[in-house]
Amino acid sequence: MDYMNEAYKEAKKAYNEDEVPVGCVIVKDHKVIARAHNLKEKNNDAMGHAEILCIKKASKKLNDWYLKDCEVYVTLEPCVMCVGALISARVKKVYFGARDLKAGALGGLFNLLEQKGLNHYFEYEYIHRDECGLILKDYFKEKRISK
Amino acid sequence: MDYMNEAYKEAKKAYNEDEVPVGCVIVKDHKVIARAHNLKEKNNDAMGHAEILCIKKASKKLNDWYLKDCEVYVTLEPCVMCVGALISARVKKVYFGARDLKAGALGGLFNLLEQKGLNHYFEYEYIHRDECGLILKDYFKEKRISK
Q1: CB 3.0-4.6 Å disulfide test: which of B3, B16, B17, B94 passes with B73?
Q2: What is the pLDDT at residue B27?
Q3: B81 → closest Cβ in A44, A84, A110
Q4: Pick from B24, B27, B94, B111: which is nearest to A112 by CA?
Q5: DSSP letter assigned to residue B92
Q6: Which among A39, A130, A141, A103 is positioned nearest to B115, based on CA atoms?
Q7: Cβ separation of B83 and A82 shorter than 8 Å?
Q8: What whole-number distance in Å separates Cα of residue B62 and Cα of residue B66?
C-alpha cells in the first residue's frame, strides 16, 4: 500500500473542507491504524494539525500513549509543535511528502532533532511527492483570489 | 489573585490522581478562563500535558484558536511539544514555577524561542515557587518507594 498516497487522500479531505490541506496516516505492522487531516479552523483548535489528530486516534486505537513501532506518513513537514508531539508519542519514523521552509522543524526552517538531550529521537525521511506540495499551493492561491 | 497558586491547585489534583503533578491556568483580562492538570496516563494520551489541555479549554471558552492577550501560568517549565503548542496558540506570556533541566524548552534543557523564523514568539518568566518543584519531587519519590 502506498501510505503517502493514503495521507494525500486525507489532505484532499481537508482541501474540500476549506482547511489547509495536510493529511496524515499512522502505520503499525503494515496496517494503517489511524487517519486524520488538518481541522484547525473547523475545530477552533491551534492544535488541530493532522499529525496531532492522528496521534490521538492511534493512541485510542492502541489504548496506549506510547506509539511503539509506529510510522507516520504526513504530506507536509511537521512544525515545532508536531515534532514535539511525535517525540512525546515516541514514534519510530516519520515520512513527509513536502518541505516546509517557513515552519518545518525537520530541516525546513531548522532541525529540532539536532537538539541534544531530548527524551526520544525518531528517524525521518523526506520522500518528495509533487501532489503534496501542489495541493497546498492551489489552496493558498484560491485563498488569495477569493479575498 | 495568585494565579500560580491556582495552577498549583491543579497540580495537586494531578497528584491525587496519580499523574505527574503539573497544573496550568490561562488568564485573560484578569480572569482565569481555563484550568487543567496533567492527565497523560488516565487519558492514554502523550499530549495530555496540563498546558495542552488548558489551551484546548481556553480555545473552547473563547471560541477561537487564537489565544490573543492570554497569559499562561504553569507549575513546570514547558517541554518542546508544549512550547510548540503555546506558539501555535499565540499566547502573550508564559509564567512557570519550577525549572525542568531535563526537558524544559524555555531555558532548562534549551531555549526553543531562540530559534529564528518562528511564526510567533511569546514573553516568558520563571517565577520560582518551592511548592511547584516539591510536589514533583514527592511524587517521584513515592513512585520509587512503591516499586
Answers
A1: B3
A2: 98
A3: A84
A4: B111
A5: S
A6: A103
A7: no
A8: 9
Closest CA to B115 of A81, A50, A20: A81
| pLDDT 10s digits, B41-51 | 999 999 999 99
pLDDT of residue B118 exceeding 90 = yes
Least Cα distance to B71 among B81, B58, B80, B61 occurs for: B58
DSSP lists the bridge partners of residue B27 as B32, B71
**B113 pLDDT higher than 90:** yes
In the annotation, is B17 catalytic? Answer: no
CB B89, CB B59: distance < 8 Å: yes
Rg of chain B over CA atoms, in angstroms?
14
Summarize the confidence of residues A125-134 as an average pLDDT. 98
Residue A120 with chain B: CB contacts under 8 Å: none
| pTM, entire model | 0.95
CA distance to A55, A76, B36, per residue, from B48 (Å): 12, 24, 10
The residue type found at B1 is M
Taking contacts as CB-CB distances below 8 angstroms, the residues of chain A near B106 are none
pLDDT digits (tens, 9 = 90+) for B52-64: 999 999 999 999 9
- Secondary structure class of B107 (helix, strand, coil): coil
Distance between CA atoms of A115 and B24, rounded to whole angstroms?
26
User: How many other C-beta atoms lie within 10 A of the C-beta of residue A11?
Assistant: 28
State whether residue B126 is helix, strand or coil.
strand
Polymer length of chain A: 147
